[in-house]
Amino acid sequence: MLTPNDLAGCYPVRNEIPWGYDTRRGPSSGDGRIAILFMPKNFGKIEKFVHSILGGSKFLRRPMDPLMTVVWELCDGTNNFEEICNQLDSIFHEDIAPVQERTCTALDGLGRSGLIEIHREKPIVEHKICSHGLLNENFPWLHIEEE
Fold it and tell me: Whole-model pTM?
């Protein structure tokens, strides 16, 4: 488990994962928006066979709460750990206290899930981190913000 000292000066960056805002659960912009991530399923041999027969989605939908949505948005490679903590503290005030520990736990969870990478130096982001949907899938409730 990471500690705030481990993350000092580090820059978290979202991996290239399809995501957008779930308009069924909140507004598409502003306070209370809810990000939803589409994580690819890792099928085993038997699961692939069953999926080929029964069909279904190849992605897990992972909705976030408003706090994790803001954490996700801030993981764009331009904000270091301290800047993220300051921004979260100014938005959520005592609801996120103690801010460094709660932010560290959130980033650790995103990292362990393979959703973000943590860089010691400010990274050059060469992959798509903005919201984007799934190819060949259309969800009318999914709001995508173009770059």
Answer: 0.88
